[in-house]
Amino acid sequence: MKKSKIRKIILKKRNNLNFKYKKFNFSNLLKLLSYKSKNKKIGLYYPIGSEVSTIELIKYLRKKKYIISLPVLEKNFVMSFYEWSNKSPLKINNYGIPEPVKLKKIIPSILIIPIVAFDTKLNRLGYGGGFYDRFINKTEKTKKILKIGLALSCQKINKVPINKYDKKMNYIFTEMKVYK
Fold first, then answer.
1. Residue 90: beta bridge partners?
2. Which residue among 45, 50, 115, 153 is least enclosed by CB atoms within 10 Å?
């Protein structure tokens, strides 16, 4: 099945889920972060639509003195991460995604990444722009990044179609299970 068809099916499934099933317990993720985090520079996403919400996670990490950064889509399909505090405004980009004002660029050592679909081999299907794959490819030429995907269990499929540009996750967390 083509990636576009999978996206359509899985997003419809996720969008139709009752919100009570979208509660996410981040305790296993927080344990992993405390163990794996070296410099506390973390790139997250600001949730849109039916994505797993990272709002409570961001609040917790901020209390633990993590440097929070969010993605900004720039010219030529380049994505960069910029520091974001809860006092800083967000602006909505052309894709409808909230982005921080570009003040301080950060190169995170950990990425928390939204997922449209995934498989047990840690392959991720995103929204189709390739922004995360390009960012990871460029950054990992000089620095290793811990890549963590967030999804709901209903987003798991048998096999994600992949190509040479697609980057695997190190972990995928759902409300039911941790894949590693």
1. 100
2. 153
> What long-range pairs does 141-144 form, CB within 8 A, spacing at least 24?
143/107, 143/109, 144/109
pLDDT tens, 10-54?
A: 999 999 986 655 678 899 999 999 988 878 999 999 999 999 999
Q: What is the pLDDT of residue 92?
A: 95
pLDDT tens digits for 42-97?
999 999 999 999 999 999 999 999 999 999 999 888 999 999 998 899 999 988 99
Count of domains forming the chain: 1
Task: Please tell me the distance from the alpha carbon of residue 78 to that of residue 64, in angstroms, as a whole number.
Answer: 30
Q: What is the pLDDT of residue 163?
A: 94
Residue 114, domain extent: 3-179
Pick the closest to residue 100 from 137, 67, 146 (CA basis).
67
Token pair for 68: 């929070």
At residue 30, the 3 state secondary structure works out as helix
